[in-house]
Design a protein that fits this description.
This protein is α/β, with parallel strands linked by helices. The chain is 35% helix and 20% strand. It is built from 13 helices and 18 strands.
């Protein structure tokens, strides 16, 4: 696609629709700020392709956006636009495709480059410090949409953090496709722990720093110490775990074992008992036996997973796992439901254990907020978004604290 103008005078502001991961959220906020209020009647769909379901939701979002904004210029970017380019471009609702690698380049949108980071659309600011991935997990299509791993420099990250803090963000979230590989493409190969140390040292006023999904095998010693003992790093770690059976992990080409994950969680909890553990888990991976599925279920309790993201395996054309012997969809869905039920049971017990505690909760715009451990809390009426308020937990209601 060549360049195109999107800044003709219009009465309708641009709309950016974000699907998928936290990195997409960060990039969508940057695009929203880059386009500004005067870019005209344009809709950008920042798509996801991590599963077939994500692609389906992308197509659904495109059709919904076209119905809502029939006269807008509708442009699709993100991983689905990269991996499923021909199919997405052929949709009658789509006017243009923007390459994933170019979507944050103001020149491609024919708008002036911003001198400062965008103001946060949420009370938490997401900063994509890393992009792409150099690994080759057999189920994953994302490296084809994101390319090789690349990192922002420390100076670039600090500049973004500063802009968000000036704009009023109370919590910074570092995110990436393979966040813990940050720095491996930079001179002297710094590790993620050093980036967090530099950020906390530079901005003493920053009281809450959170990480998106991390690969446990890549957690360096400094990062471990920060997760285990630094009060300004939130007591919440989300592991890119994927499975609880060693043979399935091997067939996925993951670089950790079940024992590695269990040991990591045990060491973190020994130092910081209140740390909340999240994890991604895939149900119904090809060749997964009943025994493997049982291992997947049991690791939820063994690693005390209270923030679980369960994905039914979805074969993605072009990946090695798509060529392996597949389970029928009913089996995959049933195993995913069992995993979700196990996570929900463990989460309910965890939430109940928090009743009576007082949590400093960062208020969102919808009347809820998040504690340091990422427990969602219903806030008293009249609480202003962006405030950090102490809340004494009275009860658990509809999956959240109040």
């Amino acid at each position: 696609m060549g360049r195109f103008r999107v800044n003709a005078p219009q009465t309708v502001s641009p709309l950016v629709i974000s699907l998928g991961c936290r990195l997409n959220i960060a990039e969508s906020e940057a695009m929203r700020a880059m386009l500004g209020e005067d870019a005209g009647d344009i809709v950008v769909v920042n798509s996801c392709a991590v599963t077939n379901e994500a692609v389906r939701q992308t197509r659904q979002a495109i059709r919904r956006a076209r119905r809502a904004r029939p006269d807008a210029r509708l442009i699709v970017t993100g991983c689905a636009a990269e991996i499923e380019r021909e199919a997405i471009a052929a949709m009658p609702e789509v006017d243009a495709i923007m390459a994933n690698a170019a979507k944050l380049d103001a020149r491609r949108w024919n708008v002036p480059a911003a001198d400062t980071p965008p103001p946060p659309q949420r009370t938490r600011a997401f900063i994509g410090v890393q992009n792409g991935c150099d690994h080759a997990c057999t189920f994953c299509i994302i490296p084809q949409g994101r390319g090789k791993s690349r990192s922002l420099t420390v100076a670039e990250v600090l500049r973004e953090v500063e802009g968000h803090l000036i704009a009023g963000a109370k919590e910074i979230v570092f995110t990436g496709v393979d966040l813990t590989s940050w720095g491996q493409d930079i001179s002297n190969t710094p590790r993620l722990g050093s980036l967090i140390e530099a950020t906390l040292n530079e901005f003493r006023e920053l009281s809450r720093l959170r990480l998106s999904s991390v690969d446990g095998v890549e957690i360096d010693a400094a990062l471990f110490d920060l997760l285990a003992g630094e009060k300004r790093v939130m007591p919440h770690v989300h592991l890119s775990l994927q499975h609880g059976a060693d043979l399935i992990l091997k067939r996925m080409k993951r670089r950790h074992s079940r024992a590695d994950a269990v040991d990591l969680v045990a060491r973190l909890k020994a130092r910081r008992p209140d740390i909340a553990v999240g994890a991604d888990l895939i149900a119904g991976f090809p060749t997964e036996s009943e025994g493997h599925h049982a291992d997947n279920l049991s690791i939820i309790a063994q690693c005390d997973i209270v923030h679980g993201h369960v994905f039914p395996f979805s074969p993605r054309e072009g990946t090695p796992a798509a060529r392996m012997p597949q389970h029928d969809r009913a089996t995959v869905k049933a195993r995913a439901a069992e995993l979700r039920a196990a996570v929900a049971e463990r989460r309910a017990d965890w939430l109940t254990s928090l009743v009576g505690e007082t949590l400093p909760v960062l208020a969102e715009r919808d009347g809820t907020g998040y504690g340091p451990n990422y427990a969602r809390v219903k806030l008293p009426d009249g609480t202003r978004a962006g405030e950090i308020v102490p809340v004494r937990v009275q009860a658990v209601e509809e999956g959240m604290l109040r």
